[in-house]
Give the backbone structure.
Amino acid sequence: MIFISGCPKSSLARSIVYDYFFLTVFVRENTVLAMGENDQLDYDRPYERHGNKYVVTSPGCYLKYENMQDTKNESGRMLQIRQKDPLTGVCVQTDIQFYDGVPVARFVNHVTNEGEEEQVLTYLSSFTCSGIKREYNFDQVGDKDMYLLHHEEIESLAKTIPGVKRIRFFMTFGQSYLDHMRCLEDVGMLSTTPIQYNGQEIVPIQFLKELLPDPASLGPRTKGKTNIGCIFTGVKDGKEKTYYIYNVCDHQECYHEVGSQAISYTTGVPAMCGALMMLTGKWIRPGVYTVEEFDPDPFLDALDRYGLPRSENHDPKLVD
């Protein structure tokens, strides 16, 4: 889901600075866990144990979002996101530096203790670079946890919508999925670094891919629905307006129609409709453009016709 607004004390021995560099594909490696995951020694979490063993490592869930600053500097754009654990007083400030003209983002995380008791920080996860969690009630799907992520269309929307003030992208993840990802991360199975096994070099995540089921085989047993949409807030004709446009797609109905679940369906149908716009001359212009630079009406009409009809809500619940 996309949200677009504004259209037309320290007892730690030292602060911890965690410096991370990514190419633009960083989001594919860091889109799962709660932002600011850190592990503090002697932080008792009995409900996370099975017997005398830990079954999850998610102390970052205690960090609560406090504020964010979005500024420009001589290098480009700087986002500063502050979170705090109300139980211990441990704070994480994440500085994200974007560089003008360079496809690199630099993450620096400052961890400080503003509480009364000494805390020992044992690690700061690479997943500190992702996802603030919110709960939202999705039409025909229900209440789901969703996480604030980076997504490619945010980049072009920020450039092509004049006067836009904020764009956010949220995606839902089931708890079972998150627990599995945490476990795989902890044991190294998500690593892209080659290792030696029985005299052969293997890449853990590539080996994991071979163990997982073929995505094409998931269609018959995937049930439920997807809800994909955008909420806009802004001013039109001198009046404040909120508008929510979305589509709900049923996995089983998609499978009965084309032999694939709704994830494939909601990916393929828009691409086909985009090609249709070009072939019929509705989206033809010299140069390279993104979809939001063209007339949306014939495209939305095509989605309605070819299996992804829109729904609208003029008074949706907003996300803080």
Q: What stands out?
A: The two ends are 14 Å apart (CA to CA).
